[in-house]
Amino acid sequence: MSEAAYTAMWEKLNLDISAHDGLLEVLGKFYGDIYLSQQNRLTGMEYLDFVLSEVHGLRIKELQDAKVAGKKVIGTFCVFVPEELTLAANAVHVGLCSGADAGTEEAEKLVPRNTCALIKSFIGFKLARICPYTESCDVVVGETTCDGKKKAYEAFSKHVPMHIMEVPQTKTADATALFKSEVLRYKKMLEELTGTEITVENLKKSIAIVNAKRKALQRLARLRAADPAPISGRDALLINQVSFYDDPERFTQSINTLCDQIEERIAKNEGIAPAGTKRLLVSGCPMAVPNWKLPYVMESSNAVIVGEESCIGSRNVRDLVDESPDTLDGLMDAITERYMKIDCACFTPNNERMDNVERMAKELNADGVIHYALSFCQPYAHEAIKLDTVLSEKGIPMLSIETDYSMEDVEQLKTRVEAFVEMLD
Ligand code: BJ8
Questions:
Q1: How far apart are CA 336 and CA 322, in angstroms?
Q2: What's the mean per-residue pLDDT of the chain?
Q3: For ligand 1, what atom is nearest to the CA of residue 311?
Q4: Strands across the sheet with 368-374, in order?
Q5: DSSP assignment, residue 318?
Q6: What is the pLDDT of residues 225-279, one digit of tens each?
Q7: What DSSP element (H or E) covers 193?
Q8: Is 195 left (phi over 0), alpha (psi -120 to 50) or beta?
C-alpha cells in the first residue's frame, strides 16, 4: 500500500497523524539502533523485521479487512484472556503493546503518578490517539490482576468499550471454579458480540492453533540452551512480542522455519556471540513492544540473554490446553486448568514461580538471573526479594533492577549490569 493510502487508513481510525508520524519515526530509529545493528543475525529474522516495519501498516490493513468481512477485533493486556475462545468465535485476538512512554501527561490525569509505566502507556496511547490497534478494537478485555490495572480499567472504560474478567488471587478449588465462571462469561460475551456460537468443533480447532503457536515458541526456547547462543535475547523477545498481534498460523509457520535454521546453526557450532559468553536469564514484568531498553543494555555488557521468565516469554508459552476432551464443558475445564497454571505475581502464594525460575536457569545453562520490575509494580517488587533469597540458597546469582520506560537511567543500568556480569567470572 502507498504511504498516502496508509495515512488515509490512519485518519479513518481517528489517529492524531502528526503525533503518530512522530511515534513511527522514533520507533524506526530505535529499532535500527537496537536490532538492525546486530551481527550474525539469522536470515529468518527478516520476516520479523518486515512484520515490525509494517506493524502499523499491513497488519492494521488486515484487521480493517477482517472487520469489513464481519469479524470483530478483541484487544487484551494480559495473558489470562483465553485466545482459544476469541478465535473460536471467529474474532481476531491482539495484545495491545503498552511498552513506550506516550501521552503520559494526559494519562496522569486519569491514574496516579505513581502508577507503573505499562498502565500509563496503554492509557496514554489511547488519549494521544496514536495506537491503530486500540482504535481497531471492538472490545478491550481487562482483568482483575494487580490493583493498578483493575483501578485503571475503571477510568479506561470511559474511553473504550471494555469487558473485565475477574482473575482470582489464589489457586484454591473455589478460585478455579470462579475463574471457570469467568471463562464462561467471556465465551458468552464473545458469542453475543460476534453472533458466532462456540462449539466443540470450532473450539477444538482454535485450541490446536494456539497450542501449535505455543509449541513453536517452546521449541525456540529449548534451542536457546545451546552454547554458543544461537539467537540473541533481543530477537527472541521480539518474536514473543510479535506473537501477540500477528496472525497465529502465519506466525507459527515462520517461527518453525526460523527454528530449522537455528538447528542448522547449532549443528555447525555457530552463534550470535562466542561460546563462553556469560548467559543471563531475565525474569519479571512483561516487556511489551517497544520496551527493549534492558535487553539492549544486557547484551551490550558482554552477555547474552538465554530466556525470558515473563508473560512475554515463558509464562505465556509454558503450558498447553488439553486437546482431548470431546464435550464443550470438558474443553472449558481444560482451558480453565491451563490458565490457572499461570504463575503471575498477582497470586498469593506464588511459590511455583520461584521453582520455574530456578528450573529455567538450570535448563538454559544461565550464569545468572536479572530480575526486572517496573517502578511502582508492587507484585513483582515483592517477589524480587523472595526470589533473591531462593536463588542465593541455590547458588544462582541474581541482580534486581527496577526501572521504567525513560532512557535517563541507561548509563546507570549499564554500570550495574556490567559489574554483575564481571562478578559472574
Ligand atoms: S499475568 S504479569 S500480563 S497481570 S507491571 S500492570 S503487574 S503494576 S503486567 Fe501482567 Fe497478566 Fe500478570 Fe502477566 Fe500491574 Fe506490575 Fe504494572 Fe503489570
A1: 10
A2: 97
A3: 13
A4: 303-309, 278-284, 368-374, 398-403
A5: S
A6: 999 999 999 999 999 999 999 999 999 999 999 999 999 999 999 999 999 999 9
A7: helix 173-194
A8: left
Rounded Cα distance between 81 and 338, Å, is 11
- Least Cα distance to 235 among 215, 270, 214, 259 occurs for 259
* 124 close to ligand 1 (CB < 6 Angstrom): no
CA distance 280 to 299: 9
> Which atom of ligand 1 lies closest to the CA of 373?
5
Grid cell listed for 158: 470511559
Could you give the 3-state DSSP secondary structure of residue 22? helix
How many residues in total does the chain contain? 425
Residue 119, ligand 1, Cβ within 6 A: yes
Bridge partners of 402, per DSSP, are 373
To test the pocket of ligand 1, the residue of 374, 376, 402 to mutate (highest count of ligand atoms within 8 Å of its CB) is 374
3-class secondary structure, 399: strand
**C-alpha distances in Å from residue 196, one per residue of 66, 192, 211:** 15, 8, 22
* pLDDT attached to residue 122: 96
- Residue whose Cα lies nearest atom 15 of ligand 1: it is 377
**pLDDT tens sequence across 379-418:** 999 999 999 999 999 999 999 999 999 999 999 999 999 9
Question: Which one-letter DSSP state was computed for residue 163?
Answer: E
357 lines ligand 1 (CB under 6 A): no
Beta strands in 274-349 (DSSP E): 278-284, 303-309
Candidates 118, 357, 401: which one to mutate for ligand 1, based on the most atoms within 8 Å of Cβ?
A: 118
Residue 97 pLDDT: 83
Task: Report residue 330: phi and psi, to 5°.
Answer: -65, -40
How many separate helices (H) and strands (E) can be counted in the chain? 19, 8
Strand boundaries in 189-310, DSSP class E: 278-284, 303-309
**pLDDT above 90 for 130:** yes
CB of 136 closer than 6 angstroms to any ligand 1 atom: no
